[in-house]
Amino acid sequence: MNTISIIGSGGMAAAIAGRTAKAGYTVEVISRDPAKAQTLADQLAGGAMIGEYGAVPAGNIVILAVPYASAARVVADYGKALDGKIIIDISNPISSDVTGLVTPGGSSGAQEIAKCVPASAHVVKAFNTLFGHVLARTVALDAFIAADDPQAKARVSTFLERLGLRPFDVGGLQMAQTLEALGLMLIGVAKNGAGSWNIAFNVDLG
Amino acid sequence: MNTISIIGSGGMAAAIAGRTAKAGYTVEVISRDPAKAQTLADQLAGGAMIGEYGAVPAGNIVILAVPYASAARVVADYGKALDGKIIIDISNPISSDVTGLVTPGGSSGAQEIAKCVPASAHVVKAFNTLFGHVLARTVALDAFIAADDPQAKARVSTFLERLGLRPFDVGGLQMAQTLEALGLMLIGVAKNGAGSWNIAFNVDLG
């Protein structure tokens, strides 16, 4: 229960792993490139386990912290090794010119990934509306989650709270479409309206 | 320059008209039902003009404050009467079961409306990410805008600032897709995560 597995070794993987280690969880870092996993593990306060790519992850919560273009292949590589896991999809399926989403109309990256995981696994959309560098350094942030399974959603909510984030349930997994649009909008606001990449969306409770 | 025209007489029309009148603009209220326009005008501090439905609006900025399902018909009724106008589309094209958007994949309500207006008119997406009752009573709020024409966008930005809102440019009109997703997400957060309809999204500038 107290181990969180993170597949990936980029900026978002590092930001999430950093907060997770600080919150007192055991972190398992997994990468197709073991050297990259080791580099990330060495950066973490208290160190981390290194997981074998493709083997059953140690954590019940598995964070898929890879680019959207790689996500389906990673999930296929794992196959039945993800049985019963809660899989957090953090991806932003954004076109290379950053003007739109590459997902099919009426779907989302999270829903597409959900089609590829074992039936006993649960996909939860989270973290995609936060920039990694903001997540790494800003303590209090709002985090939005979408998922179909209530228990998986509750467990991810608890996880986010322990990271110091304020979770907001947006609805079922189909609402990942709105979260992925918000990911694109965050970039749009950073480039156009805010003139800064040090931004985050918060909910104002009136 | 100092007159704002509002087509519509519902809750959002009233909220926008109220802030606009308080900001010192002359408000022109227009409805297919003149009695409804008169009722709204009577509520406004300092009163308002009543415009004739389908005639050339008095304002250079025309706020299309009608449901998405009616917007195309209203724009068609106006036809050339909207020549050269800045048309603010505030609609949320949400399905009746509030689980998704009714717009074609890869498009937005704003882009669909833009196909129907005269070539000399400019469509700006704004106001759709704010609940009317929040807009009516909360002074400081963030407002997001998307549009292709820089001059139209700048003028709407100035208008929003005069209403006490903090405008954020999200990008071109195709980014209205993200704003309409945010409108749906706002409802999702209100129903699921926040347990309150008194919410708004703000940008945290770190």
Structural commentary:
- The structure is a homodimer of 206-residue chains.
- In chain A, 37% of the residues lie in helices and 22% in strands.
- Chain A has helices spanning 11-22, 34-43, 68-78, 109-114, 132-137, 150-162, 176-193, and strands at residues 3-7, 26-30, 49-50, 61-64, 86-89, 122-125, 141-147, 165-171, 199-205.
- An eight-stranded mixed beta sheet of chain A has the order 3-2-1-4-5-6-7-8.
- The first copy, chain A, is globular, with a radius of gyration of 16 Å.
- The N and C termini of chain A lie far apart (36 Å).
- β9 (199-205) of chain A pairs antiparallel with β9 of chain B, so a sheet runs across the interface.
- Chains A, B: Residues 3-93 form the Pyrroline-5-carboxylate reductase catalytic N-terminal domain.
- Chains A, B: This is NAD(P)-binding domain-containing protein.
- Chains A, B: It comes from Rouxiella aceris.
C-alpha Rg of chain A (nearest Å):
16 Å
The CATH class of chain A is identified as Alpha Beta
CATH architecture tag of chain A: 3-Layer(aba) Sandwich
Supply the CATH superfamily name of chain A.
NAD(P)-binding Rossmann-like Domain
Largest interface: A-B, 42 and 42 residues
Number of domains of chain A: 1
CATH topology of chain A: Rossmann fold
Gist of the model:
The structure is a homodimer of 206-residue chains. With 206 residues, chain A is α/β, with parallel strands linked by helices.
